[in-house]
Amino acid sequence: MAGFPIEFANRIKTLPPYLFAAIDEMKQKAIARGVDIINLGIGDPDLPTPTPIIERLKQAAADPKNHQYPSYEGLLPFRQAVANWYQRRFGVTLDARSEVLGLIGSKEGIGHVPLAFVDPGDIVLVPSPGYPVFPVGAIFAGGIPHLMPLLKQNGFLPDLNAIPKEVAKRAKLMFLNSPNNPTSVVAGKDFFDRVVAFALEHQIIVCHDAAYSEIYYDGRRPPSFLEVGGAKEVGIEFHSLSKTFNMTGWRIGFAVGNKQILAGLGKVKSNLDSGIFQAVQEAGITAIQSDDQLTDGLRKLYQERRDVLVPGLKRLGLAVDMPPAAFYVWIAAPKGYTSTAFTAHLLEKAGIVTTPGNGFGAAGEGYIRMTLTTPKERLTEVVERIKKAGF
Ligand SMILES: *Cc1c(COP(=O)(O)O)cnc(C)c1O
């Protein structure tokens, strides 16, 4: 049979190119050569999910009442656990029924929310460098991403004053992310205050991604966007159990905040998916109710790793700041190297896999990202290997 040419739709044909392909190929070649690779490229916790969460899943999975389709918006006890946690952790009051929505991982909600609010030609403001789902979700809805560069001179926060008036006027939605992937920078409440004022002035929906809110160091807890006055009038916040409880594979997260925005997202979702497996939600309740019991150890572990890697890199003369949160280290490529060239150098000469900053958007050029999801001993070796390889 001859068949016919199978053509992709423009919305996927026009996606930004996959910048990691060349690195992947180099990595495969190095592995084939027998190089002992240290992989600092992945943003996925290396430790298992805590036992109490697994035990709750086992029980819940055996219960036939959990074998049906779940409710679209999430079990009320799950949403109530989220609302209670928000009160304890951030001092923010939420109505579990209308101001909390369960998600099949926060990526799902982030990718879908533009479908509810963005019409073709509308602008979506996205941080650059940033989580690739922000611009791609906008593109899938027919929107046009406008990049807000995260520059060192602005403390790696978006400069709202630099957004042209015409752009702000046409913008329907803004994505923000603190603690940030890939820079690890934490936005303060003063920044969130400016965001609310900007959003009110230009009537822009704010979608704040707080996936790393519980991965923080030195006892300094990042604030929620919803802590500032007016935030609930303009926006929602995304959370994930993935990073906080080593549950990336489980697919559970949630969005909270403005009920009209959540209703729009919920409407999209009820037409596309059928909610989170109830047994996973029950396990999620155990996780959320545990507060800091399950997460204190994790923070301590990442902090120890950070305190090995970052001072080590500094001693080698690399320009890098101590991350206050998240598990990423954002490093300026040394003089004479682009992001890609430095990544290639570290892989070829030291067997270390990192991510080139430009993979997160044009403004990430000149940086590379390392992750702290590797044991301390290996991070010590990273520093030794780079020292030996030079740059
Ligand atoms: C890991 C990550 C998420 C979480 O994704 P899930 O779908 O909840 O696993 C969200 N945002 C950012 C920036 C991330 O790095």
Oligomerization category of the chains in this entry: single chain
CATH homologous superfamily label of the largest domain: Type I PLP-dependent aspartate aminotransferase-like (Major domain)
How many individual helices? 14
| Proportion of strand residues | 5-15%
Helix share bin: 25-40%
The shape, in one word, is: globular
Q: Return the string of H and E elements.
A: HHEHHEHEHEHEHEHEEHHHEHEEEH
Low-confidence stretches: none
Short structural description:
By secondary structure, this protein is α/β, with parallel strands linked by helices. The protein is built from 14 helices and twelve strands.
Structure description:
With 391 residues, the protein is an alpha/beta fold. The protein starts with 9 loop residues before the first helix and ends with a helix. The model has no long low-confidence stretch (mean pLDDT 96). The protein has two domains: 16-45 and 295-389, Aspartate Aminotransferase, domain 1; 51-289, Type I PLP-dependent aspartate aminotransferase-like (Major domain) (Aspartate Aminotransferase, domain 2, 3-Layer(aba) Sandwich), CATH 3.40.640.10. The strands form three sheets. The chain has a seven-stranded mixed sheet, sandwiched between helices. A three-stranded antiparallel sheet has the order 9-12-11. It has helices at residues 10-13, 21-32, 51-61, 76-90, 106-117, 133-140, 165-170, 189-202, 231-234, 259-270, 278-289, 296-315, 339-350, 376-389; strands at residues 38-39, 100-103, 123-128, 144-149, 171-177, 205-209, 235-240, 253-257, 328-332, 352-353, 355-356, 367-371. The radius of gyration is 21 Å and the shape is globular. The structure holds pyridoxal-5'-phosphate. Pyridoxal-5'-phosphate binds next to helix 5.
